[in-house]
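Ticket reopened. Same input as before:
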Amino acid sequence: NAGVMQNPRHLVRRRGQEARLRCSPMKGHSHVYWYRQLPEEGLKFMVYLQKENIIDESGMPKERFSAEFPKEGPSILRIQQVVRGDSAAYFCASSPQATSSETQYFGPGTRLLVL
Amino acid sequence: GNSVTQMEGPVTLSEEAFLTINCTYTATGYPSLFWYVQYPGEGLQLLLKATKADDKGSNKGFEATYRKETTSFHLEKGSVQVSDSAVYFCALSDQGQGGKLIFGQGTELSVKP
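Engineering reply: fixed in the latest deploy. New output:
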């Protein structure tokens, strides 16, 4: 059973460009979470999605950031008009259920560098 | 709101030394508690977890006990190895919708031979 897959692993963008980060959850998992790790900091929750639905986006910046998890295909985190402060590692996690005791399984992350 | 506080790093130990990384939390209700480990350039791996008070999670020689009375979940290992060098994150699951994780700031451990 393949683990959580993320691509690309590294992404370089210039200020003002768009960044698209992809996440394929583990087989059988329908719950996806995105977290951001800024340099020298812990992980911060961004958004939680189920298939075709955003359930909790309380950690998402109000502008430029969006997420989706379509019926078919990977979950996408989209950052429009990137700025240098968006440089971070973005991690996706998945779980088979969305209960507080359920383990979330993390992907290897996408490291975004904005020049 | 809910939060997690970890002891600051970096922590440097000699091989075979005893390890303790302190973690305390603030939460309403009864969260589950987790320790994740991150090796350089990689994602997070679950190390252990506990889902109710007095539960002890254990894995690969690491242990942590869910102490509700002291709101703590300290990570311990009796004899560390060089291969244990990594960043360790304590986390709690929010009992709100979806069980999102709230992380501490992480503690970097460096084990010298």
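Chain A is about 0% helix and 50% strand. The interface with chain B takes residues 4, 6, 31, 33, 35, 41-45, 48, 55-56, 59, 91, 93, 95, 98-109 of chain A (CB under 8 Å). Please confirm and we'll close it.
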